[in-house]
Amino acid sequence: MTTLSLGTALITGASAGIGALYAERLAHRGYDLILVARSRERLNALAKRLTDETGRSVEVVVADLGDKADLRRVEALLRSDASITLLVNNAGIGATDPLLVSDVDRMEEMLALNVNALMRLTYAAVPGLVARQGTLINIASIVAIAPEKLNGVYGGSKAFVLAFSQSLRHELADKNVRVQVVLPGATATDFWADAGTPLEYLPSAIVMKADNLVDAALSGLDQGEFITVPSLPEIADLDGYEAARQKMMPNLSLNIPAARYRL
Ligand code: NAP
After folding, report:
1. Ligand 1 pocket at CB < 6 A
2. 154 included as an active-site residue
3. Residue pLDDT, tens place only, 95-120
4. Are 91 and 47 in contact, with CB atoms under 8 Å apart?
C-alpha cells in the first residue's frame, strides 16, 4: 500500500549489504528511493522488488563513485532533485591487511570512495537538506575510534567520516538538519571477503547480521542519537567518551605550553 511520501532518500552503495537493507527499510517507512551503486542488475532487481512491495518510486543510478565523471553526475542529481530529504552515505570499501603487506593503490582507491566521494556528495546534498529540513546519515565504523583493529587507512577514512559528521552537526545545529553517524562493528556482508578476510575467519560472537545492524541504526535515528554504535551495551560508555572530549575542549589551544613541557 502506498502511504504519504517522506520525500526521497538517496542511498549510496545500495546494491548489497547494509545499503540494500537501508533501501528496504526506508521504502517501507514511506520514502521514495534513489539507489546508487555500480551493479545495474542488482540495483534493478532490488528496485523492482521494493516497488512491488511498497508502491514507492525507486530510481536506479548506476555510478562508480570512485570515478570523477560518475561522481559529478550524482552530485548534480543531489543539487537538482528537490524531492531529496535524506542522504545515506553508505558506499565504502575496507581493508584488513597492515601497511607492510598492503597495496598503496588500493589504499588510494579506498580514500577516493570512503572519503572524497562521501565529502563531495555531502557538499552537494547539504544545501537542499537545509532547505527541506532533511536528514544526513553517514556510515562510519567502530574503527573510527578503534583504528588498531583493521587496516590503518581504512580506520583513518572512517575517522574522517566521524570528524566530518561532528563538524557538520556543529555547523548545522540551528538549521533543523538531522545528522547521524553510524559506527557498525563487524557486520555480515560481502565487505569482508572484498576487504581480504572472509567472514568465516571472524569469531561469530563479534559479527552482527546486517538487518539487525540497520534496524538498530534506524532505532538510534528515531531516538535522536548523533553517534550510534549498534552493539555497545551501555550508552553511558559513549557519553563518557564524549564527556572526556568536551572536558579537553577549552584547553586544546592556549597561548602557553602545559607546565610539564616548560623547562
Ligand atoms: P558491501 O556489502 O560490500 O556493500 C558495499 C556497497 O557499496 C555495495 O552496494 C557496492 O555496490 C557499493 N560500492 C562499492 N564500491 C563502489 C563504488 N566505487 N561506487 C559506488 N558504489 C560502490 O559492504 P557493507 O558492509 O554493506 O558496507 C557498507 C558500509 O558499511 C561501508 O561504508 C563500510 O565501510 C561500512 N561498514 C561495514 C562494516 C562491515 O563489517 N560490513 C563494518 C563497519 C562499517 P557495487 O559493487 O554494485 O558498486
Report:
1. 13-19, 37-39, 42, 64-66, 90-94, 113, 139, 141, 184, 186-187, 189-191, 194
2. yes
3. 999 999 999 999 999 999 999 999 99
4. no
The SS3 call for residue 12 is strand
Which ligand 1 atom lies nearest to the CA of residue 109?
A: 18
Q: Which residues contact 245 (CB under 8 A, 6 or more apart)?
A: none
pLDDT digits (tens, 9 = 90+) for 37-90: 999 999 999 999 999 999 999 999 999 999 999 999 999 999 999 999 999 999
Give bridge partners of residue 34 from the DSSP assignment. 10, 59
What is the whole-number distance in angstroms between the Cα of residue 6 and the centre of ligand 1?
25
Domains in the chain, please, with CATH? 8-261 (3.40.50.720)
Catalytic residue among 154, 201, 241, 261: 154
What is the distance in A from the centroid of ligand 1 to the CA of 15?
9
